[in-house]
Amino acid sequence: MRVYIPSTLRLLSVACNAGEIGPAPLTAYAVTPALREWYSEGDDEELEYAAMAQAARASVGLLADDPGIARRRVVIAAEVSAVPPADGSVELGDARLELHVVIPWRSVAAVHMDATDAIPVVRKAADRWEAAQNGDDDAVFALDSCEGEDLLWYATQEIPDLLAAEGPRGRNGSNGSN
């Protein structure tokens, strides 16, 4: 099953260099029964996109916790053999899962990341993350605005070059000046 793991450039670099995504437990997003029921008219591709969008939103929260990193959402797509069933406490439409395994790098299918053009939108959302979690309408709007930015797709063999181009702190926007 395909899962989407919210990340940042720094966390992606750690995972790539370690050869695994961890430690467990990991928050991931996938086509869950709750998501499938919510989007009952959606096909598999639309459901996968909805799960990835939820992971991208969670990536903004990781960016908010790490002000020194480039303001680009990162989502790691991986194939896992077993996904735990929902425990009944998830809301309708929720794609969130908790994985109790470390994911080997060989299971990574692709990485999705914002283009540099999205940095100002994502920065604003990351800066307002806490207010958005508290229901501030302007902050929620800033967070929702990220959904208008498409994530680029990178094959796994492109990741080392991508990380090298970004530099150790994510040259394209890490210092908040972009």
Automatic annotation (TrEMBL):
It comes from the Bacteria. InterPro entries: DUF6912. This is Uncharacterized protein. It comes from Kribbella jiaozuonensis. The lineage of its organism: Bacteria, Bacillati, Actinomycetota, Actinomycetes, Propionibacteriales.
